[in-house]
Amino acid sequence: MKLVIHIDDSAQWQAALEKAFPQATVLTSNAPEDERKNADYLAVWKAPEHLLQEQSQLKGIINLGAGVDYLLKTPGLPSDVPIVKLRDAGMGELMADYVLYGVLHFYRSMDRYATQQQSATWQPQAVPDKTQWPVGILGLGAIGSYVATHLSQAGFPVLGWSRSAKQISGVRCLHGDEGLDELLGQAQSLVTILPDTPATEGILNAEQLAKLPEGASVINPGRGSLIDEQALLDALGEANKPGHLRGALLDVFCEEPLPTNHPLWQHPNVVVTPHMAAPTPLNDAIDQVIAYIKAFEAGETLATISPASGY
Is the pTM of this model over 0.85? Predict the structure, then answer.
């Protein structure tokens, strides 16, 4: 069988797959067109349009990440080929570390200490009881559930929200419009790990951000499309005129890389990171890619992506 890889460091992925899965002929998308055509499987992250259009006998497409929004919007995507995605594959732990850092950043007043340092101000800040710092998690898929459990184990009360009802030990799970309102009304730190779909685009607009408690913080390692960036800037206010929200830790944006002239770069209460919260660990991902291909070859039923719903 022929497998074609398209991702940053494709050569590293190719070498690892050739070693772990010698039954397959593994090529990168840099191979000559006549060699990469007629692949049985594609394993891709942000696949170019031409790579999809070249194929005529695909049995499956494996998305090398948790977010499938880019793939589903790519022209030339075959409508009759099943799509699967990496589910956690080691990303959950990395995402949980990032989110816990973000929560602690505001909970332990590291943002305030950074401001105090600029004026050589020596002023310890009070540390609230963790029970008084509810964390809201929007999105309870594989990674969101992992993050919610991790924060609960760290001692924070956690509220999780999803479109349909979920049950997670140690997490108060909410759903629907009323559940979203309840979560927003309590979350001292709000974390967004929802997929990018028509239903979630701009879910945190001015109206929803205003429902957060005064002084709440926003942590977004999910998708840039989830937040109305101008509404967030308005809610944060300015250095000499603080807004409703205290601060934000942002890893994803509507446009990436974030333009150098974007006001989020310069805002004193925003921490910007370059879409690095949960890179895909190679070994775990390789194992999952091989398991998917074996399942396809065996005719097993897999949980595939629905282009209509976006996940």
Answer: yes
